[in-house]
Write a structure and sequence with these properties.
- InterPro entries: AllG-like, CoA-bd, NAD(P)-bd_dom_sf, OXTCase_su_AllG_h-dom, SUCC_ACL_C, Succinyl-CoA_synth-like.
- One of its GO terms (molecular function) is succinate-CoA ligase (ADP-forming) activity.
- The chain is an alpha/beta fold.
- The protein has 6 domains: 95 residues, Alpha-Beta Plaits (2-Layer Sandwich); 106 residues, Rossmann fold; 157 residues, 3-Layer(aba) Sandwich (Rossmann fold), CATH 3.40.50.261; 167 residues, Rossmann fold, CATH 3.40.50; 223 residues, Enterococcus faecalis V583 fold, CATH 3.90.1710.10; 171 residues, v583 domain like (v583 fold).
- Helix 6 runs parallel beside helix 7, helix 24 crosses helix 26 and helix 24 crosses helix 27.
- The two termini are 38 Å apart.
Length: 999
């Protein structure tokens, strides 16, 4: 039975998930398990392994998918517990590492403004776009990420070169910068040798041999394996060589390459001849018979290292570096016994295949289906090939594939020797020699029981400074029966010797070459700054890569990357194209400056029909985007019934419903007529509305007044009590407040009231008590001066004093006046409206004017009054999200820690987390409304729809919860998230407006 658990928007690095999967598969009761992100490529892996379920098929790329095959459903709980523990341990390790983390490249650069290198280990399908962003920020790039298209590599390396930056990679597994080990690499002593390598394990083999010979390396600049192809044309190799030529501490330059394109190889050799420093070069697959002037051409990686060490120590280069193999072979293996190579390092496998093929004249390498060589029973496998690592960790991390192959080859009667490497260093398994030893001993025993001799010959690629210890690994392998040699080349030679074949190397001498030295191009300041300083690295992806950096004196900040736009490639392309249009940021800044400079004043309270022309008839305003009466949820329909009864268009509920269903009453969103309405938002002509004027540009906004708590129209109640209160508000409250406000020539300055109240613990959606009291403080003296009935004065002041949420509606009109002022700039991606009607959540953005973008609304999460529960809750409703639109409400949760438990958010830490998260999707902060509990930072300002789509972080809204049936009213309070789809639609539409088509 297959069980699927989807963890929404929960990104984890693929390597971590592979290791987690391996751990889960050892649990009792688990038949098979796979844990991966929900990308299309991973779904294919699920399918191929028989684990693709309907739920997994529907997962987004940013979702973590756990599929468990088990006969016992209770096992799934154990799996989830183990998964949570594993991921928690990762978080603890990260914390112990004392590395600062950020959730965006911009935030990372704020923490480390002098960063000079971005280290990528993210899925290759997203890497190209992220690499380009780093280059645009002026960062050199080291890309461990692979699966970047050749086209993208060419384009990005050209861009890096033009910007004077180094792009190391993609698929660059190993590097050393200023003696700091980076990615999957060994700890090598500092020295005067600089290396440029289009081969990861090639660099590892050469650098570790250099270290064990007593010398050291200052730089090992990986370039990615395709750099010397004709398409890429050695862009990084050239720039790196020139950098080392100009780097004073580098005395010897080493160039390591997988088989290059001939034209590119010749051009590189020509460049090497123009250098002032001696160079050792190895082009794997070539068998040079001489050295050329100051360019020493090596055949094996060991020879490369030995020549480099002699040059670094001002010693003469020897004609031959072949050393005697001490192991005595008494009886060579029979002719039918062959050599099998099981390598975790691709370059080491290639070197082994090359040497065996040369010695036995097998016609060269095979390079097919994971094989480097497969001729006449001689087989060398690169177990790091994609076909073995799809959905599985690399064999340097996980021994499973190699252990299975050891067992398989041990049963093959033709196997005489099994060759293998054991690669140490950061990123590799903590004890690869130890975990292989049982399989090796078992294989030797299997052959022995079958009356056969089976040899294991190995090499350890590492140093004594590595986390695993070179000597310890060698000892472990020897103890389980492996013949261990000091280099891969020497191990291959021993394997051949066991077959009775002596490997020969002809002497090489220097041949003076007449090459005209050319003037070398200048090296950029960026490259030289990188080479002349300790790297300052933004680590983007695998957190464990920070360990070697911090351990050896580098500095780093962790960017906790996850796929932009939830991994939606169409949206990623759109966002990337929008990011290149500088004018969008300029327009956005104009919009938020309008918001920031707004001057809202409460100037009057008037009958709605006196200022909203369409209400002079049977018209009702409602909250949210457009909706018809038949589609309204219970509370909004209940509010409509109440409005009909209040206006006297019907005498009872039944006739009011009949009228509404007849179509005689017309409906319009409040937002279409400069108004907003709480919850149902229902506003009719004779209801009094507050009038807020934005004196920055004269924008005017309206909102009905707060009715207090209990059974109220805004929550769908329409009893006689509700209607009588509305009448009192129409006949007494509205007129009294109007008269009082007229005593203030300009009205009440709302910015002042808001600024005071936010320092007193209001966030202006769920908590308005301070603002309501401040309003009462301002309005009461004006009311007492009025020449009206004392009972009316008392009733109004008493109502205002009893209504803690009275200011909410004023705040809503304030927000509307601010956004309507800003909406006059019809450009950019700032969110200018958020509203909900119980069915749809709607947003508007500055660049699309009045157009609505909608998606099904969510139901709030929160706390319920006694006797009520979540299944009775109405989906989210109301225009009050205008408060979040201008940066208060849920956006300013940290301002009102007292309200967090009421809305189900927890405590202060949760409030702080929410506001910090909301800050990530905003452009600026409003210094007019500073929050003491947020180090006096201003409220969030300018929700950027691009940031919402990119991060997947949607605005959090504080809200009341209405009963889904009409007439019941409020049953709780909580929070709700705006649906992401609204913002995605808005961004797609704006891109189309700018001529960017969604693919």
């Amino acid at each position: 039975m297959l069980y699927t658990v989807i963890k929404k928007n929960s990104y984890q690095d693929s390597i971590n998930l592979m290791l987690l999967t391996n751990s889960i598969n050892t649990l009792q009761g688990v038949t098979k398990c796979s844990i991966m992100m929900g990308t299309n490529a991973n779904k294919d892996i699920f399918k191929n392994s028989g684990l693709l379920t309907v739920e997994a098929e529907s997962a987004a790329p940013s979702d973590m998918v756990i599929v468990v095959e088990t006969e016992d459903e209770k096992v799934v709980e154990n799996v989830l517990t183990e998964a949570d523990k594993f991921l928690s341990d990762l978080a603890v390790k990260k914390k112990k590492n004392n590395v600062e983390s950020a959730t965006s490249l911009e935030a990372a650069l704020e923490q480390m403004p002098d960063a000079n290198l971005a280290l990528f280990s993210i899925p290759g399908e997203y890497a190209a776009d992220e690499i380009e962003k780093a280059l645009d920020k002026g960062l050199n790039v080291f890309s461990f990420s692979d699966n970047v298209s050749l086209e993208d590599e060419v384009r990005l390396k050209k861009k890096a070169h033009e910007k004077g930056l180094l792009l190391m990679g993609p698929d660059c597994g190993t590097g050393i910068i200023s003696s700091i080990p980076i990615a999957f690499t060994n700890v090598v002593k500092p020295g005067n040798i600089g290396i440029v390598g289009a081969s990861g394990t090639g660099i590892q083999e050469v650098t570790t041999i250099i270290d064990r010979l007593g010398s050291g390396v200052v730089h090992a600049i990986g370039t990615g394996g395709r750099d010397l192809s004709e398409d890429v044309n050695a862009t990084t190799v050239r720039d790196a060589i020139l950098g080392l030529e100009n780097h004073d501490p580098t005395d010897v330059i080493v160039v390591i390459s997988k088989p290059p394109a001939k034209k590119v190889r010749d051009e590189i050799v020509e460049l090497l001849h123009s250098l002032s420093k001696p160079v050792v070069a190895i082009f794997l697959g070539e068998k040079p018979d001489h050295h050329e002037g100051n360019v020493y051409l090596a055949h094996t990686l060991e020879e490369t290292a030995r020549i480099a060490v002699d040059l670094a120590n001002n010693r003469a280069v020897k004609p031959n570096y072949l050393e005697e193999i001490e192991y005595e072979v008494k009886t060579p293996l029979p002719a039918d016994k062959t050599v099998k190579g099981l390598y975790s390092g691709g370059t080491l496998a290639a070197e082994a295949g090359m040497l065996i093929s040369e010695a036995l004249e097998l016609g060269g390498l095979t390079k097919k289906e994971g094989y480097i060589l497969n001729v006449n029973g001689y087989e060398v496998m690169d177990l790091g090939d994609d076909m073995y690592t799809q959905g599985k960790p690399h064999p340097m991390i996980d021994p499973e594939v190699r252990i299975n192959k050891i067992k398989e080859y041990a049963k093959d009667k033709n196997t005489g020797v099994i060759l293998l490497d054991c690669v140490l260093g950061y990123g590799s398994h903590p004890d690869m020699a130890g975990v292989l030893s049982d399989a090796i001993k078992g294989a030797i025993q299997t052959a022995k029981e079958d009356g056969r001799e089976l040899y294991f010959v190995g090499t350890v690629c590492g140093t004594e400074q590595d986390p695993q210890s070179y000597e310890a690994a060698v000892k472990t392998l020897k103890e389980c029966g492996v013949l261990v040699e000091e280099s891969n080349a020497k191990a291959v030679r021993l394997a051949l010797k066991l077959k009775g074949i002596e490997f020969k190397e002809a002497d090489k001498h220097v041949v003076e070459t007449k090459v005209e030295k050319k003037e070398l191009p200048e090296v950029s300041e960026n490259v030289m700054e990188l080479l002349n300083s300790k790297p300052r690295i933004v680590n983007i992806g695998l957190t464990s890569f920070t360990e070697s950096i911090t351990a050896y004196g580098g500095s780093t900040v962790q960017y906790d990357w996850k796929p932009v736009a939830g991994g939606n490639k169409t949206l990623i392309k759109i966002l990337n194209k929008l990011s290149k249009i500088q004018e969008i940021d300029e327009f956005n800044n104009e919009v938020i400056e309008m918001m920031k400079n707004s001057q809202p004043f409460l100037v009057d309270v008037v009958p709605a029909k006196s200022v909203i022309e369409i209400l002079n008839g049977k018209v009702i305003l409602h909250a949210g985007p457009p909706i018809e009466y038949k589609d309204m949820t219970g509370p909004m329909q209940g509010s409509c019934i109440g409005a009909v009864l209040f206006e006297g268009w019907a005498k009872d509920e039944k006739s009011a419903r009949a009228l509404l269903e007849s179509g005689e009453v017309k409906f319009s969103p409040c937002h279409h007529v400069n108004a907003v309405g709480p919850m149902g938002g229902i506003t009719s002509g004779n209801m009094p509305v507050v009038v807020v004027e934005n004196k920055l540009d004269g924008s005017v906004a309206y909102c009905t007044m707060n009715e207090g708590m209990g059974k109220v129209l805004r929550f769908g109640a329409f009893s006689e009590e509700v209607i009588n209160r509305l009448r009192w508000m129409r006949d007494v409250l509205g007129p009294v407040l109007s008269k009082a406000l007229k005593k203030k020539e300009e009205g009440l300055n709302l910015n002042v009231i808001i600024a005071k109240a936010i320092t007193m613990g209001d966030e202006f959606h769920q908590r308005n008590i301070a603002a309501s009291l401040n309003f009462l403080k301002e309005i009461t003296p004006l009311i007492t001066e009025l020449d009206i009935d004392q009972n009316e004065k008392y009733s109004v002041i008493k109502f205002l004093a009893d209504t803690d949420q009275f200011f909410l509606n004023i705040m809503m009109a304030t927000g509307k006046s601010i956004v309507d002022c800003a909406r006059k700039i019809i450009s950019g991606t700032v969110v200018t409206t958020m509203a909900r009607n119980g069915k749809d959540f709607g947003v508007r953005i500055s660049g699309m004017g009045d157009e609505w973008f909608t998606a099904p609304v969510n139901t709030p999460n929160g706390l319920y009054f006694t006797g009520y529960s979540e299944d009775q809750a109405n989906p989210d409703i109301g225009d009050s999200a205008i408060t979040e639109t201008v940066g208060v409400g849920g956006m300013a949760m940290v301002a009102a820690p007292g309200v967090t438990r009421f809305v189900g958010a927890g405590g202060f830490d949760d409030a702080l987390r929410v506001s910090n998260e909301m800050d990530e999707i905003c452009i600026s902060n409003n210094s007019n409304w500073s929050i003491p509990t947020w180090d006096f930072k201003g409220t969030c300002l300018g929700i950027d729809a691009r940031k919402v789509v990119a991060t997947g972080i949607t605005p959090l809204i504080n809200t009341g919860i209405a009963h889904k049936n009409p007439g019941v009213g409020q049953i709780g309070a909580g929070t709700v998230r705006a649906p992401l789809a609204c913002f995605e639609k808005a961004i797609i539409a704006y891109a189309k407006k700018l001529g960017i088509e969604a693919e």
